[in-house]
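Two entries, shown back to back:
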Amino acid sequence: MHPIGAEYVEVPVDTAAPEPETTGDARPEHDPAEVRIAFLLFPDLTQLDLTGPAQVLARVPGAAVEYVAATLDPVPSDCGLALVPTATFATAQAADVLVVPGGEGAFDAMLDPDVVAFVRRTTEHATWVTSVCTGAFVLGAAGLLAGKRATTHWASKPMLAAFGADPVEQRIVDDGAVVTAAGVSAGIDMALWLAGELAGRPAAERIQLQIEYDPQPPFDAGSAVRADARLVTEARAAAEAARGDRVARAAAAVIP
């Protein structure tokens, strides 16, 4: 049986953190002595989607971290900061945890057969498969969200339904071993929650204290629930216009 326990379909390879929403499925097992964590890199990812969770999960006792991309060449992020991979799709070790960041590049990554093949191959062994922000669309393109409750960046959340997912208004959603986080900063919350699952709450709280994660933003405008309704509507329409065609193409490969 697939360790994720998700209903998914074959994809041609050529084509203090809040408590998450949960289904109550049994937790996957992991070896606490060594937790192998793979972070997926692709061009134009949002670097905080990756580096936020990395700062947390690299501190988990027994963590062995790899940053995986198509090649070992530096990968440009969407803010101009380049990230250096430590492994390629061909050389990466089997991972217990996969973290897929988001960003505009995720909508090209979900159409990249090498990225999709790597994600699907990694899930054959991983006990946790996670995404941050629009990284959820890469999981969707790999067929991992069919029948799953999931979240992503608020502006693109309705489009998750194209992959058979049930989009929910939640900062972190835990559906079995598939864990999705909402936009950007939610990745830190997700990583702290996952650190608690991997190493226990005391270890996760130590990590939170070490990185002094005590957000107190100067403005209360970080949620679509509280932001100006007109701006939210316009942003969702813009996201659909910019990304809808690519989402439809990726979804067509996994949803009959």
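entry 2 starts here
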Amino acid sequence: MKRIRLGILQTNHDKSVEVGDAFPDDAHRFRDLFDQQDDRFEYRVYMTIGGELPQDLHEQDAFMITGSPLSVLNDHIFTDDLMDFICRCDAAKKPLMGACFGHQAIALALGGTVGRSDDGYNVGIEDTIFHAKRPWMTPDYNTLPMYVFHEDQVITLPHGCDLLGSSAKCKIASFAKGDHIFTTQAHPEFSHAFMSRILDFTEPQMPADTARVARDSMKSTTHGQVFGTWSTNFFKGA
């Protein structure tokens, strides 16, 4: 059976010794997540953080945009090209999935709004409660606890998009458009070890209560792998 060609747009390149040199990068974390499925993809990583994007939508069968510590509210060397790429995917109904930064970038490119959360950083494990479902969201779960680490969030959805899930601190935590766009504000690809390390690394820059709440939440389990299954179903179906 022919493998689905999945293009991963990597919007982060961590050069720190503490995190970047100690763990796989964003694209590899998603590859590890998806490779737990029975189906296997053929991957192509685009270093979007350095300005590399697909030139032709037909290069791959589907695409995804990773998370990043960067803010979509700032201008980066790849911002204009990424916004254009997202719009082209939408117009062509090319399967596109976004996580965290990718989730926000898709919303912004399609006419939604993104802003800073009134609650500040949202860090730890948080439940995404799904109010609506799509055919690819099997096995059936109404709530998925997943790792989160963000300060920006989607404030208003673009026209034509449907809200799928919300969390206690993020009203628009997941959305879809038709059968070709699927997003999450969470990080289904994170592991406990990785989340613990980035929390250690960033804790001095955040309020003490934020770090304490995050560590307390991390005593529970996550269902990121379920979202990985949903994503695999999404890529296959679209």
